[in-house]
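Subject: Sanity check before I submit

Could someone independently write out the structure tokens for this chain? I want to compare against mine line by line before I put it in a report. The sequence has 320 residues.
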Amino acid sequence: MQKLKEIIAVFESNLPSITEQQGNPREVYEPISYILKLGGKRIRPAMTIAAFKLYQDQISDDIIKLAQAIEMFHNFTLMHDDIMDNSQLRRGQPTVHLKWDDATAILCGDLLQIEVYEKLTEIGNIEILSLFNKMARELCEGQMNDMMFESKKVVSNEEYLHMIRQKTAVLIGFSLQAGAILGGASNLESMKLYDLGISIGLSFQLMDDYLDSFGEKAKVGKKIGGDILNKKKTFLWNEMWANLDKKEIEALNHVFESSNDDKIIEFVKRKMQSTKADKKTLELAQDYTSNNHYILDRISNTGDKEYLKDIMTLLSKREN
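---
Independent answer below. Compare away.
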């Protein structure tokens, strides 16, 4: 993982240029500094730099600005997601809307998005700006679809995969594609990087769904079964639901009405196993992971693939 640590260290050393903005009132900048300094794995900006390193040896000012823009945009979406989901914690710390208030979080999120466009304007690449706008539109559509799923009794897995492609995968696809474009990749090669990002995003989200129900709290970092208790229409839930008969659905509904959280989680997990929904989810996630390596092997480059391989290795090593 030395290559990954190297590019994350470069990115982290440039964080002050984001978080130490000079402006008034300071109250609108402090929450931005707060959420950016909460950390996270910095996977998206690392992917951007790793894609650039496929074609260039030396890291440029523009690729750092692009990585900053992507990290700011990611945190902007998290800030607004936390308000919509009424989340209390982000990376183990109080969310911005809880630490301050909803109005401040909305305003700071808006300002963070303006900072994103300032960085993209400084880079001055119209193609990247156009691709960013397309990605941002899709991400908003994905968020709306996710919210609409909450009121639907049944969601097909085709619908779900389309939603997570929009909500999760397109930002990863853009991160790799834009980094490659700045590095000088051809249109064909940059599209391969975009496809790789989509595949990585889908495998990541499917594995995330699986671990939410079948992972270990110590490794996953959160209470197991949250998606089950919220009846979240994940691939895992949809696959289980599609294979339940009428009596099983009645029994499941009864458990939700009459049992405590632990019993609900255990009952649903057994149904996920008996319908083989757990196995199918894990297999599909692993299929996408295999596809990731297939795509990477067919990317032509003049630089170093080890940076990107480190990231893919890290993501594939998440354990249940």
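---
OP: Matches mine. For the report I'm noting this point. The radius of gyration is 20 Å.
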